[in-house]
Amino acid sequence: MSATLHGIGVSSGIAIGPARLASHTRIEVAHYVLQKAHIAEELERFDEAVQTVRAEMSALHSQIPANAPAELPAFLDMHLMILNDSMLSQAPKQLIETQQCNAEWALTQQMEQLVAQFDEINDPYLRERKADVVQVVERVIKVLLGHPGHLPLAEDERHDGILVAHDLSPADMIGFKRQQFAAFITDVGGATSHTAILARSLNIPSVMALHNARSLIRENETIIVDGDNGVVILDPDETVLEEYRLRQNEWKIEHQKLRRLKGNRAATLDGVVVELHGNIELPQDVAAVQESGATGIGLFRSEFLFMNRADLPSEDEQFEAFREVAEAMNGMPVTIRTLDLGADKPLAGLTAHSLNPALGLRAIRLCLAEPKLFRTQLRAILRASHFGQVRILIPMLSSLPELRQTQYAIEAAKASLVVDGIAFDPNVKVGGMIEIPAAALAAQSFAERMDFLSIGTNDLIQYTLAIDRADDSVAHLYDPLHPAVLQLIAMTIRAGEKAGKPVSVCGEMAGDPLLTRLLLGLGLRSYSMHPASLLSVKQRVLKSNSVEAATQANKIMRGHEPDKLQTLLTRLNA
Fold first, then answer.
1. pLDDT in tens, 381-405
2. Residue 530 appears among annotated catalytic residues
3. List 166, 277, 367, 506, catalytic entry
């Protein structure tokens, strides 16, 4: 009997094929009290289990296929760092000693404490990292209980199978990568989960957060995965199958056409050149940027170098990461955003809990409050500027005094490098992120004092509309077409034009082809996005006329009713 499941579409495309079920049952652990004479033995058993999992992960790392996306080893490295963190490798031992409990119970208790901390984080990407903690813990518990450390799955020579799982870990993905599945669907996860990121990097249709798919779907049952609409159809009839086969063929043809655009210059029909850059989190992401045909990196989120570790990365470690990216881009611009962490993103004990973390000590506020931390990173970025066209981007600026303090810190870092005799580009460009309404309203002042501006639309929308974008209960109010949001974006672009400084958009709006012409009509000439979105945006640019887009954008700017704005946007994209 046919049925339709609805989830979150995280990677576009359509797949039709037999279900391949991955068995992944959460392990229940018992709690029992040990005699003191057995504590040492239990501690040794725990250490051996951690060591076994560490060895398994190292072995899996060496088995990663050569054609695997760069994200795969990065996620596996993340799991190794989680495993090596003292919160998991040492804290449970203290519980074993103080509570005289078994290792499985101690590890589970520590995991639940960590998961509770992740649940309080506002940032959706970081909050979903709790799944990585759970997966690492489950691998250790499986060893303690004598279970296999991988998900069993039957070998299949066909490549049209659709992987159905409750959840997937990076280690699982290594084994599954060899079997070339047509699509992934999971009960849990979201747009920023590691499985979603891998699916996008592989250009594989994927739907997450289906809740009960794993229990409802049968092995070999024919299913349809619609990654565009977040829909999974079970046991479709012939009429539905025929419709989706047609849509699947159309999607494949369109995707092949997009790949042909890689070498094309991004310019409108009337000759306006547009810069399309890629966003990255780690040096390994550069490969995807190059494959997309991007003309630079518009946002290197440097905070990802600080995550999932007990210590802070040294200046040399940060420098090596930045240099690797600068050299790989071969003279193209590489914009490195300084540390964007804060109260909602705990950082090695430097930040304290806040009742309103989105408005707390974060981003540039944190860096200015921790001058040693900031100076270390600035020196690393400046050193990398000797190896490519590196630019510095300052997040969450809100006032000119903040900007002056930042500029002073940059000059001090330059002076220290001169004293040390270390080469760097003395004319490295410095820009500011416009993601607070106050900054957008004062964009003219910032543009006059900086080399470029970058609009972070994700936070700008959140702060303008007073909406926590991580809160599902108000997610429907998160509206990039809200007149106030559009006015702030337009105001920032005009400020850049008046000061003769380039302005880019690096938030999710930049990667949405439905908004490409609107932004183009507002005067935007530089977009930065996830590499997977770049060719779709380029196609929209190539089919656009900037003068016509400006005319339609002006009409949208005068509108106020949501329905009318949507109608005007549809007309603009016709």
1. 999 999 999 999 999 999 999 999 9
2. no
3. 506
